[in-house]
């Protein structure tokens, strides 16, 4: 009986949504052109962009919400493609930032990329049929009713990666448990970040033996330095000499630029010839950050390539952040010197460099504290404190850091073994 209620409820939701789209999308696309560029009103009416032929190959669909989740998605693709090398992957995101990241970080195994189509049963069925989708992986909390129903009706297994179910979202689903329980019961593997999320998925109907608490998958990375040839090539593109110390500061917000400028000025006064790369979290804040970093003395780049001589540069392209951390000697994680809560510390930590950050990392406390306790992450509150710590780690405590980093890499790299027996 519950299955019939589920089908009726979601089909009605899908029908109403579809009817509204027929009216709303043309209006939104015409009168809100800037919003259309961000949300892709028209793009969501089409299938994701096909990159290669997928006939006669098993296709796995992975979907993420925005930039942060898209980064997790790519890490997971790297992991599962090593176990299923014959499979191809369809990757989608719900936001422009997420789609752009996916498009700029394509893997050879990805056969299509684009926006998630509107959550109606016809659209979702069309994606599944067109790409012959054999499995779906949803990143964190991307639980779309029509997608889940279409997958259920076509016997496509659904799994959750890095699963969360925050209290607000959980209460909404719990209030309609009689509708959604049959869809949660169909999930064959749910990899959650902690026991609280596990209990919530269990309440919604996921079988206990299908739920696995594995921690935050963003920490499931291979910690290693880039190959020398790659490192040297990337530095050459940026006009950074191999002998110069490079600080890459990623996901930076207004208010943090001043502190970073003061920090690098103090480091130079101490005799360390540092160059600073700043990647804003939001490109539209570039002008404000440039003013904080020194105005006309800052080289402003749209891509990670220049022939200019510089000491501080701002690079707008967030999709290049991984490369920019990989060539750095020191990493800084933004959103921590202002009240934002911090971003993914593993983006920098995975390259075996000392990682610095401010005190505001409450959104991802476990990861930041793990780096601190391992002796490879460092918290500072002021420009002077940040400069002092960097100077100490790079000079007087360099040998201690290297020992800590070797042990840290060995420990982190072993944790990936947890996932291997769980992935179907």
Notes on the structure:
- The chain has 17 helices and 15 strands.
- It has 424 residues and is an alpha/beta fold.
- Strands 1-4-3-2-5-6-7-8 form an 8-stranded mixed β-sheet, with helices on both faces. Strands 11-12-10-9-13-14-15 form a 7-stranded parallel β-sheet.
- The chain is globular, with a radius of gyration of 23 Å.
- The mean pLDDT is 90.
Could you give the topology of this structure?
Layout: H1 2-31, H2 33-39, E1 49-50, E2 59-64, H3 67-83, E3 88-93, H4 96-104, E4 110-115, H5 121-130, E5 133-139, H6 145-153, E6 158-163, H7 167-175, H8 177-185, E7 189-192, H9 195-204, E8 211-213, H10 228-237, E9 245-252, H11 256-269, E10 274-280, H12 286-293, E11 299-301, E12 312-315, H13 321-326, E13 330-333, H14 346-349, E14 355-357, H15 365-374, E15 377-379, H16 383-394, H17 398-415
Helix pairs in contact: 1-8, 3-4, 5-6, 11-12, 11-16
